Amino acid sequence: MKPTLSRQTIINVFEGKASPLQKSLVQEWLEVPENQELYFQWLEEWERDNPQFFPDQETAYRKSLQQRQGPENPQTPFSDEVSAWKPVKNRWFFWSLAASVLLLISSGTALFFKEELLYRHYKTSYGEVRTFTLPDESRVVLNANTTLKIPRFDLYQTDRRAWLSGEAEFSVKHTKDHRRFVVYTPDNLEVQVLGTEFIVYSRNRGSKVVLNKGKVQIRLKDQTDPPLVIRPGDIVNLSQQGRLTLHHRQPVSQHGAWKDHRFIFKNTAMLEVANQLTERFGVRFVIRDSILAQRTLGGTFRARTADEILPILCDMLNMKVRYGEDAPDTYELISSQ
Q1: 137-169 as b/e: b if 16+ CB within 10 A
Q2: How far apart are CA 27 and CA 104, in angstroms?
């Protein structure tokens, strides 16, 4: 049976006051995934009350880990290292602690643990829409099949940073120190704001930024040109080829319909409809008929699963669905004509 530890026991480890028995119990306690998240929560709270770490998190983390995994001692035990720590005002103290905790995890899970240590993750599964409040009191609504991560320890960074894969609506709270909120996407798009409401879409087919309120600056990573400034009603698309396209005075409200599990189609080709259903529900569509793939439809539909909307689309486009026997999440769309 895994031990149950109090918050004060973990705080003793942070402050270098834990006994050998306590350190051994912490090592065993951290093998439980639920305890790891609680550990991070207490670590954040303790660090806010004891600010003493270096702003460059990645550099500090790597340096501390290298120091503790020297060539002669690549796997320094957690219990041996902690005993020598004292509560000193040293900028490397925090990351020495983090690196030592990592060393108690097996090599197969060390990278995962490092990611969990440095970043807080928000995720949705297929068909799921969720609202989260970030530590700075900004609000974010995640569309289905979306991941957002933010640094757990961002107190000394110039910007508030977030990395998005999927689609999300942000309502950014302005801070007293005027720190920017920057969203990064996998295709090197950077969206910079102070306080505003906007939607960021970033999937395999490209990226898109829809501005509802405020003002946003958009740039590509390593871009030397001045950032693109957009205003409410503007939409910016980033193609797979890395090309930015700006559209002014667009009906932006329809781009947030997914928050209510709605689809809004306006003369939309069936191929595009299938792509949206795939992104939202995680199913695969096969359309062998090129004419059917280009047939268009319009209307507003509410659906939480692919099976809820497919019968309606079949009636509208006079088509039928053949379900994959070997691949249950594959749907083949066939014209009934």
Answers
A1: ebebbbbbbbebbbbbbbeeeeebbbbbbbbbb
A2: 7
Place of tokens 């709605």: 262
DSSP state of 258: G
Plot region of 137 (φ>0 → left; ψ -120 to 50 → alpha; else → beta) = left
Tell me the pLDDT tens digit for each residue of 60-79: 555 545 544 454 444 444 43
Answer yes or no: are the C-beta atoms of 243 and 208 closer than 8 Å: no
| Per-residue model confidence as pLDDT tens digits over 126-177 | 999 999 999 889 999 999 999 999 987 765 568 899 999 999 999 999 888 8
Residue 192, beta-bridge partner list? 182, 217
pLDDT at 241 over 70: yes
Q: Is 166 left (phi over 0), alpha (psi -120 to 50) or beta?
A: left
Indicate the CATH number of 261-335 among 3.40.50.2300, 3.40.30.10, 3.40.50.360, 3.55.50.30: 3.55.50.30
pLDDT at 98 over 80: no
The alpha carbon of residue 122 and the mean position of all alpha carbons in its chain are separated, in whole angstroms, by: 6
Amino acid at the residue 229? V
Strand partners, 301: 263
Residue 193 has φ and ψ, to the nearest 5°, of: -145, 165
End-to-end CA distance of the chain: 64
User: What pLDDT, on the 0 to 100 scale, is given for residue 324?
Assistant: 73
Beta strands 160-171 and 181-184, pairing class: parallel
Beta bridge pairs of residue 64 = none
Domain spans, the chain: 7-105, 119-253, 261-335
58: Cβ contacts below 8 Å, ≥ 6 apart: 118
**Domain 119-253 CATH class label:** mainly beta
User: Band of the pLDDT at 1, cuts 50, 70, 90?
Assistant: low
Q: Looking at this protein, which amino acid is placed at residue 7? A: R
